[in-house]
Amino acid sequence: METRRDIFQAIADPTRRAIIALIALQAMTPNAIAEHFDSTRQAVSKHLRVLSECELIAQKQQGREIYYSLNVNKMKEIDGWLEQFRAIWETQFNQLDEVLQTMKSRKK
Amino acid sequence: METRRDIFQAIADPTRRAIIALIALQAMTPNAIAEHFDSTRQAVSKHLRVLSECELIAQKQQGREIYYSLNVNKMKEIDGWLEQFRAIWETQFNQLDEVLQTMKSRKK
DNA sequence: TAATTACGCAACCATATAGTTGCTTTTTTT
DNA sequence: AAAAAAAGCAACTATATGGTTGCGTAATTA
């Protein structure tokens, strides 16, 4: 079990997905973000750190405030991973049956 | 911290993503899948259970063997979540700067 | 029918994770 | 200059997670 810190692990948490959706619309400070959730500012800050570490979000200091914004480009990596399955779901038919038929005929 | 069991949590694990990619090509038994990894069959079985619980995979008994196959339709849900960001990354410009400018002018 | 194979299930363990509270630093306001 | 606000950092806690080994059961094969 190695310590993972990638986009997939980052979007696994529902709070983090909510944060992503929130700042996608407009850059926000940790306090402003925390107001949308039940948990403390510190908890939100931890999520922001996870998102930062995998570069899903960027930050910009503005006086004593820090604005966090979504790095939409990084989101494309998830899209890239999905790409390999897109071909499959576009030509979906009962794949399992197909495979099992093939296997049966091979045994003969 | 509630116990989650959704597609996003399911694809967070790299081994599970590998399993998904593997059975996307053709339905496989737990033993056959486990051969592709370093961990034990039981560990793989646990991953298969997680994937089953969120309906990302389907199983079909064939004698004493169980063939697991990808439920490509469920994969579309990830695509659906990404949908909301697609509009943003298609019209990407420096959003953060934009927002900060707006906020500055509002203060005046 | 006895041995083997495929697989799920349960118990257990170490580590990761999400959350908390408390403290410090820096910037802004009074 | 003092008080307040914004946010990071550290320590700590409970629970989730990924892994293991061992065992039971059902289907094959010898």
Automatic annotation (TrEMBL), chains A, B:
It comes from the Bacteria. SMART domains: HTH_ARSR. It comes from Fluviicola chungangensis. GO terms for molecular function: DNA binding; DNA-binding transcription factor activity. This is Winged helix-turn-helix transcriptional regulator. Residues 1-100 form the HTH arsR-type domain. InterPro entries: ArsR-like_HTH (IPR011991), HTH_ArsR_DNA-bd_dom (IPR001845), HTH_MetalResp_TranReg (IPR051081), WH-like_DNA-bd_sf (IPR036388), WH_DNA-bd_sf (IPR036390). Keywords: DNA-binding, Transcription, Transcription regulation.
